[in-house]
Amino acid sequence: xxxxxxxxxxxxxxxxxxxxxxxxxxxxxxxxxxxxxxxxxxxxxxxxxxxxxxxxxxxxxxxxxxxxxxxxxxxxxxxxxxxxxxxxxxxxxxxxxxxxxxxxxxxxxxxxxxxxxxxxxxxxxxxxxxxxxxxxxxxxxxxxxxxxxxxxxxxxxxxxxxxxxxxxxxxxxxxxxxxxxxxxxxxxxxxxxxxxx
Length: 197
Prior knowledge:
The protein is an alpha+beta fold and about 200 residues long. It has helices at about 5-15, 80-85, 150-155, 165-170, 175, 180-185, 190-195, and strands at about 20-25, 35, 55-60, 70-75, 110, 120, 125-130, 135-145.
């Protein structure tokens, strides 16, 4: 996460005080991941949540193409009102959102090889089709420094089955005590922010 190829784009997109709020290492068992956004900002209570910037970085450890499990995205789907219009559709592989099968929806495939870095806004609609069991993926999650109570609540609500709410504001001691300033800087204010919730 401190490598220039990751750190510098994160800083450019989220600002110099960006924060790290988790990572995942996955060996997938699914060939298909339905169309979805990681942040469900179309829900009425979260409509303004789309403005709080959260970024996900994917590192695929196997070559992936459009037809063999690469990430597919719908450009512009992280912005209102397009985001809300997509959220109103039933975006699953067996449904026919906009009259098309999920794998046939117009999209942009982010094909990649090991060593590539894929970055996307967590409100962006994305999917995977044609994958295989055993695809290896590392995901890193970053966010802009929260500046409002709404931002702070949005960060708190970024929990998932992989990373609970309480852990967002309690980074591991190895990060907090790191001798590397970049790593320490991404996590050192999380406990203080968590105390405000």
